[in-house]
Amino acid sequence: MTKAELVSAITKTAGIRKKDAEAFLNAFTEVIKETLAKGEKIEIRNFGTFYMKEKAKRVARNPRTGKKVKVPAKLSPAFKPGRELKKLEKVIR
């Protein structure tokens, strides 16, 4: 689903104007980015949690040369699904 399709779905589901749905979606994603940048997590009950996950440093291999390369530890955005989303997994399989 693209952003435009998501805006259309929000418009139909919430019964609001497309302009308002797009403003909501933009604000929602901006708040998530700002909160994660501060190192905080966002928990939406029964949906899931957005958080920053620490990836350990490691040694990787350059596929072209085969040389070993040290990759430093870093933080990466992650999402852990909540109980309701996990139920969908059982339905789909």
Describe the structure.
The protein has helices at 3-14, 18-37, 83-92; strands spanning 42-44, 48-55, 58-61, 68-71, 74-81. The chain is of the alpha+beta class. The chain has 2 domains: 1-40; 42-93, IHF-like DNA-binding proteins (HU Protein, Chain A). The strands form 2 sheets. A 3-stranded antiparallel sheet has the order 1-2-5. A hairpin with a 6-residue loop joins strand 3 (58-61) and strand 4. 1% of the residues are buried.
Structural descriptors:
93 residues, HU Protein, Chain A, 2 domains, 3-stranded antiparallel sheet, alpha+beta
Compile the SSE list and pairings.
Elements (H helix, E strand, L loop, with lengths): L2 H12 L3 H20 L4 E3 L3 E8 L2 E4 L6 E4 L2 E8 L1 H10 L1
Antiparallel strand pairs: 1-2, 2-5, 3-4
Helix pairs in contact: 1-2
